[in-house]
Design brief:
The protein is α+β, with helices and mostly antiparallel strands. The chain has helices at 5-29, 41-44, 48-52, 59-73, 79-124, 129-148, 153-156, 162-187, 194-213, 216-221, 223-246, 252-273, 283-375, 383-411, 423-434, 463-480, 531-534, 543-553; strands at residues 419-422, 444-449, 458-461, 486-495, 501-509, 558-563, 567-575. Keywords: ATP-binding, Coiled coil, Kinase, Membrane, Nucleotide-binding, Phosphoprotein, Transferase, Transmembrane, Transmembrane helix, Two-component regulatory system.
């Protein structure tokens, strides 16, 4: 990764500024280590905030001494005028005090409302621990301010002992920092660094227990532990806030902006209490601004979560709709498949019954004929029965061979010998070799060629197997074609759906055709047409199934079109390897 000096230089300057801010916050919030119960009466009557504020000097006591000196130098005739001025100044101070009190009440009320809002969010969604931590941090800030700010909780009800106020100040300050740390840990610190968070949390809890158990004198003597603990926690928080900003984690920029505002207003209070500038105290306002930015971050986070839930719900609804459509489609397909399986099962039962009958009949006849010959009923030189027995045994042999061949093809244990063949020459050769099948059948066998004379088409085929397919289709066509009819063999070149060239071989007849309801099942195993309805010769019903397996192994497809009393067209395709 390329090192960007300008980018990291800006980050370094920003880190320095935030470190200065941390020291400002640290010195602003720390209790006084020099609390003395023997202070002058004027100081002892002041608020606890003034007693332990680090920037507090004895300026009020000095102003009081200067005031006495001025009075002693004023002439008696000017005392009445001075009294009037004092009354006007006192009235103005009362007005300013009321305005300041209202402003503080507004700020604390806003922080308290933010805490209530996040607490309600947590109760509605218990997994949102960040909202709980922000709420508890808000309550800690409000409680601490109520106890250390003059004219607020103390003056509204009753005065507390300074020792109690100091303990409340320390505990609420640590509690606020603790929950702020837990919030930053939840939002920006990764798991591998959370052992540091657990360490700081344990230290804070132990220190709070010690403050509740040990006397105040011991707590004041070891107050440096409180300061160091708060300082290290704030440094830890700032470092990971900057790291989160560099990594552009969600909400990191808002967190840095809030810290920057806190930095500016803390230094305003620093110069205000050190009497370098004449402004007001804004530390509560800076905390309010920071909590407001964190509220924006959590609101955006919740909004993004809701948007994601809505988007996922919408996608889930679409997915459910698609699944319903798929289920409906699959149900329809299963219904069709079920009907097809029922048809196949029925065909299988018919075929098995037919095979059983066809095997049983010749076996019974052979058994009877042999028995008759053995008993001398049939003359031994009578060849009629012997010829019938021979034909039946041939039928049985063919049926058994077809079943065996089909089983081999379906199991994938076949042995094909592929080679590139010039289809034009091969088809002409097939036409010549198939001519003897029409001898003595009173049928016309016509060859139609649509391949150009100069075109050479090469396919990778097993010639013996393709001849077997053509033979099966022609024998099948002869069964459906009456005497005097014609059977055509046609070859064309076409492009399939994938725009690849292929050779299409078609066997057409002028026979009785096939019912459309039976066409989808012609290439199914165990399917056999009604021999009496179509006046067919006996067969195994496996020739077309075997032909389909052979064509598919060659990468082609086989099909049929037929109309009743108008003939049938059986065709199959072979992919062209080169031309």
């Amino acid at each position: 990764m390329r090192y960007d000096k300008k980018k990291y230089g800006i980050y370094f300057i920003f880190i320095i500024l935030l470190m200065i801010c941390l020291f400002g916050v640290f010195f602003y919030l720390k209790p006084s280590l020099a609390y003395n119960y023997d202070e002058p009466p004027l100081l002892a009557s002041s608020s606890i905030y003034e007693m332990h504020h680090p920037f507090y000097t004895q300026s009020k006591w000095d102003q009081f001494i200067d005031y006495l000196e001025k009075i002693s130098s004023v002439k008696k005739k000017d005392l009445q005028t001075l009294h009037v001025l004092e009354q006007e100044e006192e009235q103005q101070n009362v007005v300013n005090e009321k305005i300041r009190l209202l402003f503080q009440a507004f700020v604390l009320g806003s922080i308290f409302i933010i805490g209530i809002n996040h607490l309600v969010v947590y109760f509605h969604r218990k997994k949102e621990l960040s909202a709980l931590f922000i709420a508890l941090a808000c309550f800690g800030v409000v409680t601490r301010t109520f106890f250390i700010k003059e004219t607020l909780f103390i003056n509204l009800f009753f005065d507390f002992k300074p020792e109690s106020l100091l303990i409340v100040d320390l505990i609420t300050g640590l509690v606020s920092i603790l929950f702020y740390l837990l919030y930053i840990n939840r939002e920006f610190i990764r798991n591998r660094y959370r052992f540091m968070t657990n360490f700081f949390v344990s230290c804070v809890i132990i220190y709070i227990i010690c403050m509740l158990v040990f006397p105040l004198e011991i707590i004041l003597q070891t107050n440096y532990i409180y300061q160091l603990l708060a300082l290290f926690i704030l440094i830890y928080i700032v470092c990971f806030s900057i790291i989160a900003g560099i990594k552009r984690m969600p909400g990191a920029y808002l967190n840095l902006i809030g810290l920057l505002i806190l930095f500016v207003l803390v230094w305003n209070d620093f110069f205000h209490y050190s009497e370098h500038i004449s402004t007001n105290e804004f530390i509560s306002v800076s905390i309010l601004f920071y909590l407001f930015f964190m509220t924006i971050h959590l609101s955006r986070k919740s909004s993004y979560s809701f948007e994601r839930v809505e988007r996922l719900s919408e996608e889930l609804g679409k997915l459910n709709l698609i699944l319903e459509l798929k289920v409906k489609q699959r149900t329809e397909e299963l219904q069709v498949a079920n009907e097809s399986l029922q048809k196949v099962e029925e065909s299988r039962r018919r075929l098995l019954a037919s095979v059983s009958h066809e095997l049983n009949t010749p076996l019974t006849f052979i058994h009877g004929h042999v028995k008759a010959m053995l008993d001398g009923i049939v003359p031994k030189d009578d060849t009629t029965y012997l010829r019938a027995v021979y034909n039946d045994t041939k039928m049985m042999t063919r049926m058994i061979a077809d079943l065996q061949e089909l089983s081999i093809l379906e199991s994938g244990q076949y042995s094909f010998h592929f080679k590139e063949v010039d289809m034009k020459t091969f088809i002409v050769q097939m036409y010549e070799e198939l001519q003897p099948l029409f001898n003595g059948k009173d049928l016309h066998f016509i060859f139609k060629e649509s391949i150009g004379k100069e075109t050479n088409i090469f396919c990778s085929i097993d010639p013996i197997r393709i001849k077997q397919v053509l033979t099966n289709l022609i024998v099948n066509a002869q069964k459906f074609t009456p005497k005097g009819g014609s059977i055509y063999m046609e070859t064309v070149i076409r492009q399939n759906e994938n725009e690849k060239k292929e050779v299409k071989l078609t066997i057409m007849d002028t026979g009785i055709g096939i019912d459309e309801k039976n066409i989808p099942y012609l290439f199914e195993r165990f399917f056999k047409l009604n021999e009496q309805q179509y006046c067919l010769e006996k067969g195994s019903g496996l020739g077309l199934v075997i032909s389909k397996e052979i064509v598919e192994i060659h990468g082609g497809m086989i099909g049929v079109t037929s109309q009743k009393n108008k003939g049938s067209k059986f065709y199959f395709t072979l992919p062209i390897r080169r031309d």
